[in-house]
Design brief:
By secondary structure, the protein is of the alpha/beta class. It has helices at residues 6-21, 38-51, 68-72, 115-128, 147-155, 170-185, 216-224, 236-244, 248-251, 256-273, and strands at 23-30, 56-60, 80-82, 85-87, 89-92, 95-99, 134-140, 161-166, 190-201, 208-209, 228-234. The protein has one domain (25-273): P-loop containing nucleotide triphosphate hydrolases (Rossmann fold). Helices cover 41% and strands 23% of the residues. The chain binds adenosine-5'-diphosphate (ADP) and magnesium ion. Magnesium ion (MG) binds next to helix 2.
Amino acid sequence: MVFPTTKKQEEQLKRISEKMSRIKNKLLVMSGKGGVGKTSVAVNLALALSSKGKSTGILDIDIHGPNVPKMLGIEGTVLYACEDGIEPVRINRSLKAVSIALLTKDQDQPIIWRGPLKTALIKQFLGDVNWGDLDYLIIDAPPGTGDEPLSVCQLLPNLTGAIIVTTPQEVAILDSRKSVMFAQKLNTPVIGIIENMSGFRCPKCGTEIYLFGKDGGQKAAEELNIPFLGRIPMDPEIVKYEDRGKPFIIEREKTEAAKAFFQIVERIQERLENE
Ligand SMILES: Nc1ncnc2c1ncn2[C@@H]1O[C@H](COP(=O)(O)OP(=O)(O)O)[C@@H](O)[C@H]1O
Ligand SMILES: [Mg+2]
């Protein structure tokens, strides 16, 4: 990779602003803690929006653990670069995806990079991908408040906002408070908190079991004075569909979890499209 000179840097920032000005809503999905369901939320949110006819892109900037291609069933696909930029992978008529995992065929090689390289790659993804005109770009970040979400918030002054994913348990909420503070410090609006893995309904007796506690995300949202977007229950089918790269929210739209997802998507749309 060639490090840009100052003039090149300026040109790159101009390209980022041009490309991003063609995207109406740019949303960063983040969380304080890993494994809370960020990528699941990002992928299902993108699938839901595209199923409603919204032209959508999903950008995976989780450099050390890029899971978007697996969940979308495009593992092994390699991004195509032409003279005027990088072509995103088409998932369906209204959904396109880009991930670092699509740069090489070897999915098992860990990426060992430090901050400046990560920032350089994110700049390329924002400035050189031919997304075209989009209604939504969903950006899936790694956990925490490191280089990746920081680069996005700094490079996109007109980022629409951050969506924070948490489980209902204390430790996840403690971490999501940090995500909220991080967004606020960077002047990124917080669209709201999604509580994931909130309760599991026993398939035999129908009793709801609260594996990770109850209502924690909602309480955190109230305490931090930010919107609560809703809760998604645990559903083993989510794991099954994601492992197979099949669109859970589309193929299992009648499940409680898919309905919960769609409700959250509606709340997000109401907030962003009516403004
Ligand atoms: N609501 C849910 N019910 C059941 N499993 C879930 C749910 N949300 C996420 N998962 C599973 O939990 C694991 C972690 O989710 P993932 O989206 O990769 O989290 P993160 O991106 O925050 O690390 C994955 O195996 C995923 O399939
Ligand atoms: Mg993830």
